[in-house]
Amino acid sequence: MAGTFWSLVPPIVAIALALITKEVYSSLFIGILIGGAFFAIDASSGFTGFFTHVFNDGMIKQLSDSWNVGILVFLVVLGTMVALMNKAGGSSAFGEWAKKHIKTKKGAQLATICLGILIFIDDYFNCLTVGSVMRPITKKYKVSREKLAYLIDATAAPICIIAPISSWAAAVAGFVSEGENGLALFCKAIPFNFYAFFTIGMMFLMVFMNFEFGPMAKFEYSRNDALGEDDEAHSSNGKVFDLVFPILSLIVLCTIGMIYTGGFFASGEDHKNFVDAFAASDASVGLVLGSFAALVLTICVFLVRRVLSFKECMACVPDGFKAMVPAILILTLAWTLKAMTDSLSASKYVAGLVEGSAQGLKNFLPAIIFVIAAFLAFATGTSWGTFGILIPICIAVFSVGDPLRIISISACMAGAVCGDHCSPISDTTIMASAGAQCEHVNHVSTQLPYALSVALVSFLTYIVAGFTQSLGVVASGIISWSVGIVLLVGEVIVLKKKIAK
Prior knowledge:
With about 500 residues, the chain is mainly alpha-helical. It has 24 helices and no strands.
């Protein structure tokens, strides 16, 4: 079963069950059990081998991985920061301030998009920060939690993958072979990342044209879910400062934390400039260091301003942890499921499909890579893992200077983000649900038609890019962008007319 189509069955079953039953925990666990059973059958290890593989090689190993532990600590610290901002009255004060400046539902959505674009450092940070800041505003103007989750998710990975200074840029640069500037290659690929740009364009078009389609329409037009529960008790001394300061300190200190891990503050030959340090950074460690420093600084400021007592600040720690428990549980199960698919060599199977098609369908290759990257990221729930599999293949297949090299690498990144955007077991999708406090399965089902609509336009645009690559990178980019924009606007107009009827 390893290295064959069977290796993709566990994630496919988990995703199908999650969409059918609307229950993600049991669906992921069943997928894990199927993966463990397949591995035990191949290894002829029996029941004990199955049990050991699922829990020891899977769950325990994933929870003891230093990167994963860093992400979990980062989530807990962010949850605590959000609890502190709410308890101090910062979110409430911002809501009162926003009432004077944001007058409409459209304005609330546009403010959410713009804030998401501004927070480009990391997708996790983006999801939880934008969610905590914009929930009170979107709640006031009856924007459903499902729509808020979509706006958060669509300005998380799609923004990070086109931002040269982000944890995603550092990850992509790390997958490039030695002897080549990975960050420079990443920057060259940005203009051809059609899915990311078209996703952002789709959001603005939907907001300005004022319509929804698919399952999202039910939640938006019913307007019942937007009300949510009553606000928690908070300090009456809260100011907008009590929300802005923690967020700014998070951005600044997380950036410092990341360049610190990349060697920016090192001396002698180990010193790197800002860009190189960001490219070489350990995002997991950097985000933990930065967020913890921001947490301590925020508590000190709140104590000095007497907004909260020390006891109230410490009470926010377990509150923040409890708020993150559902996301942590889903992440744990998703990581374990990924371990099962990795043990079945699902990545090698998909990589073989890509290499087998490289020579025969040269002009179609960017579109093919886009689809395969999307499918792999959807099935495994990780876009970073997809980068690690496909980017080295794209670099090996095409020589330096070949326009298809840049276009194919862009297609790989775009497809990985697309699959990550659609997958219910993606950590970014999970974080978007947590940030909006939205039912995870509802977020996935409402977002899927929007993501697939953009994916279709991106796929067709990559076909155009593949056939025009002989004209050069610049000419191919201009023609592809022109066709893509026309297709995207036309698609949205057709959808709106269809919905109107």
